[in-house]
Design goal:
Largest sheet: 5 strands, antiparallel
CATH class of the largest domain: Alpha Beta
Distance between the termini: 20 Å
Organism: Lentibacillus amyloliquefaciens
Structural class: alpha+beta
Strand content: 25-35%
Helix content: 25-40%
Pathway: Cell wall biogenesis; peptidoglycan biosynthesis
Number of helices: 8
Keywords: Cell cycle, Cell division, Cell shape, Cell wall biogenesis/degradation, Cytoplasm, FAD, Flavoprotein, NADP, Oxidoreductase, Peptidoglycan synthesis
Subcellular location: Cytoplasm
CATH topology of the largest domain: Uridine Diphospho-n-acetylenolpyruvylglucosamine Reductase, domain 3
Number of strands: 19
Strand order of the largest sheet: 6-7-13-11-12
Shape: globular
Number of domains: 3
CATH architecture of the largest domain: 2-Layer Sandwich
Protein name: UDP-N-acetylenolpyruvoylglucosamine reductase
Length: about 300
């Protein structure tokens, strides 16, 4: 069993990257949009692809549990936290263009990638202008909004596999489908993505992005911590309308509440615990199932351990 705050593990990790990039016993609620979650034994923020590879190899050789954490926008971490190494690529944020190609490192925000595309009059990423996740997270779940999704524009990606090898994969190698990919099953760590764009008119691209931003800000409860849209869209239905028609808006368990502004969102209204948040998700699923016979499948990912207390 992995020993929490092992000095040996700390020395191994700091031999790969700087001590400033390795934090022991780090509170994870500071690293998620929901402001939920316990502590990580080690929270590591590498600055190069080589460091990522070496950290994966140490995890494998030392049999240390390993978890990749994006920017925490579509994630709930349980109150007991995460054992072993939590890897965050938030320091890999470079975005560049080459003609009609846009290359973004995985730690960059997909919103920033869409803004870079706009500045270069490249069209194709307008749909992502309001998605709060990282580029890596966007590939992980084939993120989408307003009729667009990552699979529409992704050309290729660089990843590290479970053995620490660096691979370049074509978009079709990722089995991108509605809000899913094979990235979690394969254990890939996305390092960067190359998007194939088209030249467009700056004013037209900006007009689309401004319209989508207005729709998002007017309809979504952005003033509260949340994990975004909690549920996938069930075939033939809208999750938010099913929840609304189940009279669940405003339903609260502890500090977690079904948003009054958008029923598809659950917000951290007042110091919610992860357990309260998760219990409210289950309550919504059970209620909608009983009322309409529809299974609401989670879009948000839940990881970590239960609180020992």
């Amino acid at each position: 069993m992995f020993v929490v705050s092992s000095h040996h593990t700390y020395e191994k990790l700091t031999a790969i990257t700087s001590r400033e990039n390795v934090m022991a016993d780090e509170c994870l609620e500071d690293h998620t949009y929901t402001r939920l979650g316990g502590k990580a034994d080690f929270y590591v923020t590498p600055e190069t692809y080589k460091e990522v590879q070496e950290i994966v190899k140490v995890s494998l050789a030392e049999d240390i549990p390993f978890t990749l954490l994006g920017n925490g926008s579509n994630l709930i971490i349980k109150d007991g936290g995460i054992r072993g190494i939590v890897l965050n690529l938030g320091k890999l944020t470079t975005i560049s263009t080459d003609g009609t190609r846009l290359v973004a490192q995985s730690g960059a925000r997909i919103i920033d990638a869409s803004q870079k595309a706009l500045s270069c009059s490249l069209t194709g990423l307008e749909f992502a202008c309001g998605i709060p996740g990282s580029v890596g997270g966007a590939l992980f779940m084939n993120a989408g909004a307003y009729g667009g999704e990552i699979k529409d524009v992704l050309e290729s990606t660089k990843v590290v596999d479970r053995e620490g090898s660096l691979l370049t994969l074509a978009a079709e190698d990722l089995d991108l489908e509605y809000r899913s990919s094979n990235i979690p099953d394969k254990g890939y760590i996305v390092l960067e993505a190359t998007f194939s764009m088209k030249k467009g008119a700056y004013v037209d691209i900006k007009a689309i992005m401004d319209d989508l931003t207005f729709k998002r800000e007017s309809k979504q409860p952005l003033e509260y911590p949340s994990c975004g849209s909690v549920f996938k869209r069930p075939p033939g239905y809208f999750a938010g309308k099913l929840i609304q028609d189940s009279d669940l808006q405003g339903k609260q368990i502890g500090g977690a509440q079904v948003s009054l502004k958008h029923a598809g969102f659950i917000i951290n209204l007042n110091g919610a615990s992860a357990t309260e948040y998760i219990n409210l998700i289950h309550f919504v699923q059970d209620t909608v199932k009983k009322k309409f016979g529809v299974n609401l499948e989670r879009e948000v990912k839940i990881i970590g351990e239960e609180s020992p207390g």
